[in-house]
Specification:
With 76 residues, the protein is mainly α. The protein contains 2 helices and no strands. Pfam families: SPT_ssu-like (PF11779).
């Protein structure tokens, strides 16, 4: 892929985002506020998933391994 096609693809994705989220009808300061809030929410969800999903997977593994009689070798 050449650089122009990648740039055009990202431009198209950004245009689709603006159309779907109705950002195209907002004023520039409203767009920046909306994008900032959305980016903050997405960052918090990703961080929370990164921190808590491994803990829950480990706890579920320990629970089901004890239930099935399998002794886990996972160290705490």
């Amino acid at each position: 892929m050449d650089f122009k096609r990648v740039k055009d693809y990202f431009s198209w994705l950004y245009y689709q985002y603006q159309i779907i989220s109705c950002c195209a009808v907002l004023e520039p300061w409203e767009q920046s506020m909306f994008n900032t809030i959305l980016l903050t929410i997405v960052a918090m969800v990703v961080y929370t998933a990164y921190v808590f999903i491994p803990i829950h997977i480990r706890l579920a593994w320990e629970f089901f391994s004890k239930m099935c009689g399998y002794h886990s070798t996972i160290s705490n």
